[in-house]
Design a protein that fits this description.
Layout lengths: L2 H62 L9 E14 L12 H7 L3 E13 L3 H16 L20 H26 L3 E14 L2 E12 L5 E10 L4 E2 L2 H4 L5 H19 L15 E5 L4 E6 L12 E6 H4 L16 E2 L4
Parallel strand pairs: 2-3
Antiparallel strand pairs: 1-2, 3-4, 3-10, 4-5, 5-6, 7-8, 8-9
Helix pairs in contact: 3-4
Keywords: Coiled coil
Organism: Conservatibacter flavescens
Protein name: DUF3298 domain-containing protein
């Protein structure tokens, strides 16, 4: 082999060795770069997830700013007025059978009364105060004398603003009072009383409960009172109605369970049945009792028992009623923190 050939071969061998080293070095650097890219992508994904969670927490925090965890309420006098009216004595009549007490009573001045005592509630939360005043307007201005027991009369136009609600309410109550006073004098009634009071019972998580007591007396042996409840979804800013809780298809099953509870009530009180099963139906009034994990249905006077027994409450435990609730309310009694809960 010539000296030139040997030199060329040696150069080729050295060049090949050099290229292999560079290729190996480049390959190693490429692998390191790929690992760095994978690590950076992982960190970027982690940062994005943290950012999404942070945004969700901020949105939730902003939402919770509108959900007062403990309501601070204050009673507000909406309309309060009373008067006593004196009627002239009845004319004594000649009657040989009339005893002295009867004759004396007919010559005494008779006195009657009229009393309005309407107490609302302010919570400091405007949308919630609007809900409370909507109920007050519906109960006291539409049908304050119960002239429409079937609730078929057209519903009043309730103003949107809270200030307008208060103005309309006071105006209409003043007119009702004047009308009742005229009836009292014309018919010489014993008395007329109209009372309304709303109280804050308590709050459990996003559920707030208000109790409404109304009392009506228009002469006679006794008046009629009623207790109703507003179960307020603080998150949804709505009142939970019976239709919200129970699908129509499940009403009959719930009535069957309550009928069994009514039989137990009759046995406990030793009363005779006051109603037949075919006439038994769910009442409008109910409250969600989170403390005792049950839903309580409040039946009005005379619905299930004589007047002397008052309103009758029948309850179904959470286990009994849960299968019949709408899915939205299946989680009502989860172990959530009780906040200012008194019910």
């Amino acid at each position: 082999m010539s000296r030139f050939s040997l030199t060329l071969l040696t150069s080729l061998i050295l060049l090949t060795a050099c290229n292999d080293k560079e290729i190996n070095a480049l390959t190693e650097r490429l692998q390191q770069s790929e690992q760095t890219v994978i690590q950076l992508k992982s960190e970027l994904d982690k940062s994005n997830n943290q950012l999404i969670q942070l945004k969700a927490d901020m949105d939730k925090s902003k939402q919770n700013e509108t959900l007062p965890r403990t309501l601070v309420t204050k009673p507000v006098v909406v309309f309060q007025k009373e008067e006593r009216i004196k009627f002239p004595p009845l004319q004594a009549q000649e009657d040989e059978d009339k005893n002295q007490d009867q004759a004396s009573a007919e010559t005494e001045t008779r006195e009657a009364f009229i009393q309005y005592d309407i107490i609302a509630l302010t919570t400091g939360v405007e949308w919630l105060d609007n809900i409370l005043y909507n109920d007050l307007l519906a109960q006291l201005t539409l049908n304050h004398r119960n002239d429409d027991p079937d609730n078929t009369a057209p519903k009043p136009n309730i103003p949107k603003s809270l200030a307008d609600k208060k103005t309309v309410l006071q105006t209409q109550l003043a007119q009702h009072y004047a009308d009742d006073l005229a009836d009292l004098i014309q018919d010489e009634l014993i008395g007329i009383r109209l009372a309304y009071e709303i109280n804050y019972v308590g709050q459990h998580h996003d559920l707030a409960l208000f109790r409404i007591f109304t009392d009506n007396y228009y002469g006679g042996a006794h008046g009629l009172y009623a207790t109703e409840y507003l179960n307020v979804d603080m998150k949804g800013k709505t009142v939970i109605t019976l239709n919200d809780l129970l699908p129509l298809k499940n009403i009959n099953e719930v009535e069957n369970q309550l009928w069994e509870a009514y039989q137990a009530y009759l046995e406990q009180t030793e009363l005779d049945p006051f109603i037949e099963r075919e006439d038994f139906e769910l009442p409008k009034a109910f409250y969600i009792d989170t403390l005792n994990r049950r839903i309580v249905f409040v039946f009005p006077l005379y619905a299930l028992a004589p007047y002397v027994m008052g309103e009758v409450e029948l309850a179904l435990s959470w286990e009994e009623i849960k299968p019949y609730l709408n899915s939205k309310y299946q989680m009502l009694f989860d172990d959530l923190p009780r906040l200012n809960s008194t019910f």
